[in-house]
Design goal:
Order of helices and strands of chain A: HHHHHHHEEHHHHHHHH
Structural class of chain B: alpha/beta
Number of strands of chain B: 10
Radius of gyration of chain B: 18 Å
Oligomer: heterodimer
Number of helices of chain B: 10
Shape of chain A: globular
Strand content of chain A: under 5%
Shape of chain B: globular
Order of helices and strands of chain B: EEEHEEHEHHHHEHEHEEHH
CATH architecture of chain B: 3-Layer(aba) Sandwich
CATH topology of chain B: Rossmann fold
Radius of gyration of chain A: 22 Å
Structural class of chain A: mainly alpha
Chain lengths: 386, 248
């Protein structure tokens, strides 16, 4: 029997993907830092934190077909876990000695709290906080996933429920001002273990940490997608019953991918807090959650790299537009979403795959006479480009 | 009569009602080891519902289904599969976005948990087994093709192949030759005759010629109840069956 590309783990596609990751890494780590000033670079760093959410959505929505309109929940929770640690460090008794209760965060003092609430206590530890950044959102996703997927709630109903959760969490954070900082969020974050995160130098370092984490997460996502689990996700998007009657407990796979996406979003949230210096409920609710879905859709919900580029592009356009025509941005966003749905459902990655990739491949294989032109095999837009 | 527990599959007093309508009403039948049992009957007789009940897709309102003395009515779908029951759907139910190879691989009975699937390795055992099954279902040359691009008949074969790779003790097929060309039908009969060795098969089929070719025993369903049961010869000459089903 002939051994073909797919059966041996598809070396061609894997090299193609690795080239893509490498190009993205070059773009983020070399091109952007060389081309932008610190202010703009910090802004790109902020955009890239949303890319973590978009990556999660590619797996959860693109691969498995589970649309979550509440990824802001996890982004926010990750960010809040980080912010709680930084806030406690910024609230040392010396720094807060003018308060009526020194040693607690300022907003607690303003809200007449006289002691640190119990759930704030463990956030004195950096290790605990870093673990919590991933564990708290993943745990919440697990509970929500367990309740929904075991009961076979899916599709639009699931999307609506995630949206409801996003609304609930926002209301909770805003309402419990004394414990959460309320509508303003947790602000005035200063140092990480004594290292001032507000300086230009720190911002540069954090940008690179963020970039490295993003590349790491992309590689992790690639691993998941290329495992059998990745193919099962695609299979259950198509024919859930067939997967179930092939001996799989479908709900467990959905719970896994939902938790995985939540954990990725949370890493983004924590990096957001570090780079931007605060976290507030405006990144948790329905509107930011839907915006994050748009980033993913524009880039291409089936393509990991596409989602990253999509996030960068939409945010760059947002900044540009709202700097010159602030009132136009919302309309542009709406138009963009309609455009994606109607004209290019597979996003930028789909466009690239349909129009650019065939030419590229032809040009490449012309240079190598020994290689049989792989362009001959039809690679449909929505499986490739990841 | 033998003790029911000797049967591979024992369905007794099975009833299911949808809003008061009894789609299956106090149904009992048995499938022996290595038996090919065909269920026939007019549209709406409850044939597909019976398969749905056995594989856990529909929950019974009453009665019992015992597979090797294990009660299936209380088990979840994936547990029933693991117990050794495989089910083919009426319309080819395959994964369009995956290749033929990947379709078969997913059905390979290993790494069925989340972390098992993450750690799953495509080793020689998997590749050989997929190749073996692909040969059997006439798809050896299509392994790298996306399943979407297969013909209707090839899709039916692929789904049969996905069941074979699970190696179930009881194979349930819902109209395996429906919508096939004459040529494909012949090949399918040949395929089924080959794969039914060493396992029991429960088939729903309308094609009488096909039923005659393969059936050891035939159950005729009508309005959720058994109208007649026995060899094809006997059933064919049963005046009740002639009246409601075979007719004219």
């Amino acid at each position: 029997m002939k051994k073909t590309a797919i059966q041996s783990g598809s070396p061609f596609r894997v090299t193609g993907e690795m080239t893509g990751v490498l190009l993205l890494a070059l773009f983020i780590v070399v091109v952007l830092p060389l081309g932008l000033d610190t202010f703009r670079l910090n802004m790109v760093g902020k955009y890239l934190t949303y890319a973590f959410v978009a990556l999660g959505l590619v797996l959860c929505w693109g691969s498995a077909g589970i649309l979550s309109l509440g990824q802001g929940i996890f982004f926010g929770l990750g960010g809040y876990c980080m912010a709680m640690f930084l806030k406690l460090e910024a609230s040392s008794p010396e720094a807060t000695k003018i308060q009526s209760t020194p040693g607690i965060p300022d907003f607690m003092d303003w809200n007449q709290l006289t002691a640190l609430p119990w759930f704030w206590e463990p956030f004195h530890s950096l290790t605990f906080s870093v673990v919590a950044v991933v564990a708290v959102p993943a745990l919440l996703a697990f509970v929500v996933g367990l309740a929904m997927f075991k009961r076979r709630v899916g599709g639009v109903y699931f999307a609506i429920i995630t949206q409801a959760f996003a609304a609930i969490l926002t209301i909770l954070i805003v309402g419990q001002q004394g414990y959460t900082g309320g509508i303003n969020g947790i602000t005035d974050l200063r140092t990480l273990k004594g290292w001032d995160i507000r300086t230009d130098e720190a911002k540069l370092v954090l940008y690179f940490v963020n970039a490295a984490l993003l590349i790491g997460c992309i590689l992790l996502c690639l691993y998941v997608r290329h495992s059998k689990l990745g193919r099962i996700l695609v299979a259950l998007r198509d024919k859930e019953d067939r997967v179930r009657f092939s001996g799989y407990d479908v709900a467990n796979f959905k719970i896994f991918v939902f938790c995985f996406a939540a954990a990725l979003s949370a890493v983004g949230g924590a990096m957001f807090t570090l780079q931007v210096g605060f976290m507030s409920p405006s990144f948790v609710g329905i509107v930011p959650s839907i915006e994050m879905v748009i980033y993913c859709a524009v880039g291409g919900r089936l393509s990991l790299l596409g989602a990253v580029y999509g996030t960068l592009l939409v945010n760059w356009a947002k900044t540009l537009l709202s700097e010159s025509f602030p009132e136009l941005w919302l309309f542009a966003m709406g138009a963009l979403f309609i455009g994606v749905v109607m004209v290019f459902p597979n996003g930028l990655a789909g466009l690239y795959q349909q129009h650019l990739a065939p030419h590229l491949k032809r040009a490449l294989s012309r240079g190598r006479p020994g290689v049989a032109a792989p362009a001959a095999t039809i690679i449909p837009p929505h499986t490739a480009a990841d | 009569m033998a003790n029911p527990t000797d049967y591979l599959l024992a369905v007794e007093g099975l009833t299911v009602s949808f809003d008061g309508f009894k789609a299956v009403n106090d149904l009992s039948f048995y499938v022996d080891a290595n038996e090919i049992h065909v269920i026939i009957g007019p549209n709406g007789a409850g044939k597909t519902t019976v398969l749905d009940l056995i594989c856990g897709r529909t929950r019974a309102s009453g009665g019992s289904i015992k597979f090797r003395n294990k009660e299936l009515t209380a088990m979840k779908e994936h547990q029933i599969v693991k117990a050794g029951v495989g089910r083919k759907f009426q319309n080819p139910s395959i994964y369009d976005d995956l290749t033929v190879f990947e379709n078969l691989e997913i059905s390979f009975p290993r790494g069925r948990t989340v972390f098992g699937a993450l750690a799953f390795k495509r080793d020689a055992e998997v590749r050989d087994r997929v190749a073996e099954i692909a040969e059997m279902i006439f798809l050896s040359d299509h392994l790298d093709q996306r399943a979407e691009y297969l013909s209707h008949g090839q899709k039916q074969w692929l789904e049969i192949g996905m069941l074979l790779i699970q190696d179930p003790e009881l194979l349930m097929l819902d109209e395996p030759v429906a919508g096939m060309s004459v040529n494909e039908r012949k090949k399918t009969a040949e395929l089924l005759n080959r794969i039914i060795q060493n396992r029991s098969v429960l088939v729903i089929e309308h094609d009488m010629k096909f039923v005659e070719d393969i059936a050891h025993r035939v159950t005729v369903l009508h309005q959720g109840k058994i109208l007649s049961e026995g060899s094809m010869e006997r059933v064919k000459n049963d005046p009740k069956v002639v009246e409601v089903y075979l007719g004219h």
